[in-house]
Specification:
CATH superfamily: Class I glutamine amidotransferase (GATase) domain
Structural class: alpha/beta
EC number: 3.5.1.2
Number of domains: 1
Order of helices and strands: EHEHEHHEHEEEEEEEEH
CATH architecture: 3-Layer(aba) Sandwich
Keywords: Glutamine amidotransferase, Hydrolase, Lyase
Helix content: 10-25%
Pfam families: SNO
GO molecular function, one term: lyase activity
Binding site for L-glutamine: 51-53, 112, 143-144
Bound molecules: glutamine
Number of helices: 6
Number of strands: 12
Strand content: 25-35%
């Protein structure tokens, strides 16, 4: 069985653990909270939960996990949700003073808190591809979520596959950020897979719909994609 670590320094790590225990592939994995480099070294894949990206990065640094996490991202699958997506991005804008440590596993630029403040958090039905029952919308929960500002495809890195988008008109009019209706606006991209990494700007672990957890296990952990 593959050992799936969940970075358990801050944020919604318990929710990810519960979600993984409920999916069809649950018997193929062992779920393990990660707080030290020694435990990380025993993992075959990792989830970085939502929470507060600057805090998670700071705690990771204090635990001596930052460099081990960067090395991990070069050879093993990582899924980052919301704050975790910020940590997994290559470039982050709108950071706190002092900047934001990132792992850089996925070739995108994101803006922290890109949809606005806490009160502008929202839910939206997502258009997804590659999930089981793709025709059934997935409810995206966006809590002070990052926005994808740009995708950076390059011949030297695996292709970036867009897994979920916000359908036009699904964003409440109160949002600070209003993407253009055009399908080419990167700001409607809310989930991407690149190689064995998955980045979602929303929180699948805060719903009872386990399809993204199943997707990560099937398409990132048990997959032949290059890293
Ligand atoms: N705004 C948070 C951050 O920058 C992320 C919010 C979340 O994970 N729900 O870290």
């Amino acid at each position: 069985r593959e050992v799936v670590g969940i970075l358990a320094l801050q944020g919604a790590f318990i929710e990810h653990q519960i979600a993984l225990q409920r999916i069809p592939s649950a018997r193929k994995i062992i779920v393990c909270p990660v707080r030290t480099p020694e435990v990380l070294a025993r993992c075959d894949a990792l989830i970085i939960p939502g929470g507060e990206s600057t805090t998670i990065a700071l705690l990771a640094k204090l635990a001596g996990l930052l460099e081990p996490l960067r090395q991990f991202s070069k050879s093993k699958p990582i899924w980052g949700t919301c704050a975790g997506a910020i940590l997994l991005a290559q470039v982050v804008e709108n950071t706190k003073r002092g900047g934001q440590e990132v792992l850089g596993g996925v070739s995108v630029t994101v803006a922290r808190n890109g949809w606005g403040s806490q009160v502008e958090s929202f839910e939206a039905p997502l258009t997804v591809s590659g999930l089981d029952n793709s025709e059934k919308p997935f409810t995206g929960v966006f809590i002070r979520a990052p926005v994808v500002l740009a995708l950076h495809p390059h011949p030297d890195v695996p292709p970036i596959e867009v897994v979920a988008r916000l359908p036009p008109g699904s964003i409440p009019a109160s949002q600070t950020t209003q993407p253009q209706a055009g399908p080419d606006d990167p700001r409607i991209v809310v989930a991407v897979r690149q190689g064995k990494h998955l980045l979602t700007t929303f929180h699948p672990e805060l719903t009872t719909d386990g399809r993204f957890h199943e997707y990560f296990v099937q398409n990132c952990i048990f997959s032949s994609h290059p890293i």
